[in-house]
Amino acid sequence: xLALCRVLFRVRVSGEENVPKVGAFILAPTHRSLMDIPxxxxxxxxxxxxxxxxxLFKKPLLAKLLSGLGGFPVDRGSADRAALRTAQACIEGGxxxxxxxxxxxxxxxxxxxxxxxxxxxxxxxxxxxxPVAIGGSEQILASGHVLPKLRRVAVVIGEPIFPPTRDGGxxxxxxxxxxxxxxxxSLQALFDQAMEKAGY
Length: 200
Fold this sequence. Notes:
It is a single chain. The protein has a seven-stranded mixed sheet with strand order 1-7-6-2-5-3-4, sandwiched between helices. The chain has helices spanning 2-8, 36-44, 60-69, 81-92, 117-125, 137-140, 173-198, and strands at 11-14, 26-29, 49-53, 71-74, 97-98, 129-135, 153-157. Helix 1 (2-8) packs across helix 2, helix 4 crosses helix 5 (117-125) and helix 5 packs across helix 7. The protein is built from seven helices and seven strands. By secondary structure, the chain is of the alpha/beta class. Helix content is 38%, strand content 16%. The protein has a single domain (2-198), classed as Glycerol-3-phosphate (1)-acyltransferase, CATH 3.40.1130.10. It is globular and about 50 Å long. The mean pLDDT is 87.
């Protein structure tokens, strides 16, 4: 999959220096296409664990592919605490883990409302969030399409967002909200850059 990204698509990556070389972090990509995880993984040069909707794991071949790439199932129709616990376990085990802040594939230049799972896990585990904007993935493989188009893709990796210092106890709602707002502002600016670099 990663080789296809390199050979078939003209992927331009900037900000690689913002990706931690070792240890866990939370990758927070924009989400416009099923190609976003391959592009994000290609750009970070790290194996990334990620959530994928539970229905995809009902198809044996696809389930094997997703698991091989680092995916684990999540029920998008509910507050899937089991998936969050799996993500937390991955992070605490030193594995970089992706959470799409928008929760699902959306369309258009403006990022949708953000879920707070990335901020919560960042504060809970003490690892940074690395925002990643992928420009052009929707033009390559939009929702409802099967075959990708050969178009330019630009990936812009932002500076890590570090969680506030936590002195034990419960994670404060105000801290989660503030970090989510910071992530959304950062990721929107990066997405604007990525779309411009991709020529859209």
